[in-house]
Amino acid sequence: MTDETTVREDLRRRAADFLAAHDPAATEPLAFLRARYDAGLAWVNFPEGHGGLGLPRALQPEVDRLFARAGAPGNNVRGNGIGLGMAAPTILAFGTEEQKKRFLRPLWTGEEIWCQLFSEPGAGSDLAGLATRAVRDGDTWVVDGQKVWTSHAHNARFAILVARTNPDVPKHQGLTYFLCDMADPGVEVRPLRQITGEAEFNEVFLTGVRIPDSYRLGAEGDGWRVANATLNNERVAIGSGGGTPRGGGMVGVVSDTWRERPERRTPELHDRLLKLWVEAEVARVTGQRLGQKLRQGQPGPEGSAMKLTFARLNQQLSGLEVELLGEDGLRYSDWTMVRPDGVDFTGRDAGYRYLRAKGNSIEGGTSEILRNIVAERVLGLPPEHRVDKHVPWKELDK
What we know:
The protein is of the alpha+beta class. Helices cover 43% and strands 13% of the residues. Strand 2 (133-137) and strand 3 form a beta hairpin.
């Protein structure tokens, strides 16, 4: 028996023993989730004491399947995607032991929702150009500024925040990364109504917000490096597709519409659908390959290519669906202003999908910026002229 097989079987026994001792049907959900974290069965690749067992990431799906089959409660993955997919790995990589103990457990159990305070009205794609300031005052930092396009800010207890702490150095070097309590005085969240009619995003105003230095993540002035680790995780999360089956997701929705609307079929539309189906399948298997790579190490710039593909396919497929539906595709079912917890492309109508997909090439890094990242960091092409000549690309990854 190989070492890998032994580890896998031992993990299965751990999961079985845990489920035997904590019947999901008879255990209060929050108590169950806390116990699962303490048993190291939350993120098995995380260290012991922080929700894991120090095992390969590739074993996590197997654990999740065992718990799902047993009817175990979920930990609000849809409502806390920023916390689970972005904040947690960044805290693990750069946080102190005290920060890991304070934040990781309630984050994983869903007790504390997280949001991301990065983008600003004048610093979206050029994140390093942000203007939000943090000024040291003894053991605290006083933060003033405005953030925008903030998902889940209206539900969030904490935020990952990047602010400028030194305006006298090149812009990439003067940033610091913080963990911000959204319940603190001076934090104001306002809804942003989108083209869909909903307020999925928010703008956040920070006025004299005091953040203790113990909530600083990483060294002062090292915020750009920490933020890049977060962004790599974000792009992988957006672009990987979450294990979409063959013919699933948006291409599955459009394929169903094709079958249901024979009167709308033309050779040109058929050709477009076939090409998009092939591209969607290529993206799906590429996402699987990227996922396998991630289980062996850390996310890299390849996630930018996947996110680029995701945005383009969603926009082209949603446009094709509207064409296949004819005048029915112009109808919009509900323009009520609500503040949803997330995006549901396949569970909504065609009008919603068409409008919401327009944001895919903006959120998580604009397609224009991601093309530069792919060209320079993946393909190794020479960089274009940079306005900030003080920081070459090779320095940004350090």
